[in-house]
User: Fold this.
Amino acid sequence: MKSLQTADSACPIIALDRFIQATRDSGYKGTASAISELVDNSIQAEARRIEILITAVDGGTTEGAIEVSVRDDGVGMDPFTLRQALRFGGSTRFGDRTGLGRYGMGLPNASLSQARHVAVYTWRQSPATPRPAGDGPAVFTSYLDVDEIAQKRMEEVPRPELAKSTPMTCSSPSGTLVVWSRCDRLDNRRVSTIARKLETELARRFRHYLWAGLRITINGESVRAFDPLYLHPAAAITGAQQFGDELRYEVCVDHNNPAVIGVVRVRFSELPVHEWQSLSNDAKRKRGISKGSGVSIVRAGREVDYGWFFMGAKHRENYDDWWRCEVHFDPVLDEAFGITHTKQQVRPSAHLLEALTSDIEAIARALSARARKAHQAIKQNERFSEAANVATRQDKLLKPLPKRIEADAKALLTRLEHDHPGLRKSSQASKYMIVESAIHETPFFSYARDQNKLILVLNPEHPFYREIYKPLVESELPRDQQLRTYIELFLLAAARSEAASAGKSLPVSKYRHDWSNTIATFFNDK
Assistant:
């Protein structure tokens, strides 16, 4: 006969068996996020070395046939702390904002989100800790098991016991080893795939700690820090330039209590368009350039989210792949950033958005515009390359240009280098270049030069450009493309003849003669 439940019957706040099943489905985006929680714990325990081992058991042919182990050389735990660490919310550091964790959910929640069984081994040097026979430290162990909890055979964390053996050697003076077995919820079933994706995530999330000396290995291979801003000289890929100075904001923890504040630091980087634009699509993807635009949100040196934050009305576009942003905040601002206990995402509060969005959106728009201009300059250089190459090849047949350079040509070159950063980095082998730039004068073209290069500057606001030249540029017909090249050579010859007469009072007939000879020299290469 079924027993009747009454209002006076025992009614625990948590239905433990159902809670465990439900919590496995919530909170973590994937395996990398769950393992990151274990790395957080190791860092909090002052570890300098963290070893992650992903192995196939039973040949890896059945579900759950992969085990994950994370071993560190941190301070380790005593039996009481070990038992607390396996409780949901049982951390001895609950509410502590000095480190990476606050809620005491990380170890059990992360572990059971991926595996049905988690065992923890920990050891430390302490006179009060009994030592087993032999020279090694005393290793205590305890565990959680989803099936035992579901079957109501486990209602509390087992008391830690001295381990008779450990799955891995516990050779450091102190440390902790976490072992996931019966892993039924890993992102992938291949060890190599899990390891590769995990390396990518950890290299970015923990980059600041890796630069500070932390060592993380995955199946024996060291994780090298990846800087999404491409700024740090020790990162796996570098080469960007910081854009502007770092911005610093003092933000109130709660807009109703402005007396308590935290610091937010924001910096931007600009990727080298002229060097990396020519990379293959596959190379750009591997470097994280393609579809990599976004803002890295960093809490106390650990990345907690990456996405399109503080952008206001700005929509993401392809040119945004060529700049990056990092927002670093103090843990005291957790509530303002809407940080969750899994440290996987942020939900910025209204007063935080108000404090940061205006500046970040404006700088993002400026960087996007600079990237667009850089790409347009590259396309122009490619478009003009045939005429410039012909002129360069034929230049040896002409009388060298005088060393004296007109002041206007020097001034125009300075302005062009500011507006077109790629000019300074252009090939030194080419003596001629063609660019488009509003020259704020009536002529269709002008020129700029230094001792090594002559630059023909076309004025896109001139009617000749709009009515004749531009249609040739936009045409795909071979005949039009050839005619455009002849026009460019024609104008390069004019600019060269003008440069050759710098500082001289020559009759028009002399200029016309030099121009005609230069045209003939250039055209003879075609």
In short: The chain has a mean pLDDT of 86. The radius of gyration is 33 Å. The CA atoms of residues 387 and 485 lie 6 Å apart. The first helix runs from residue 16 to 23.
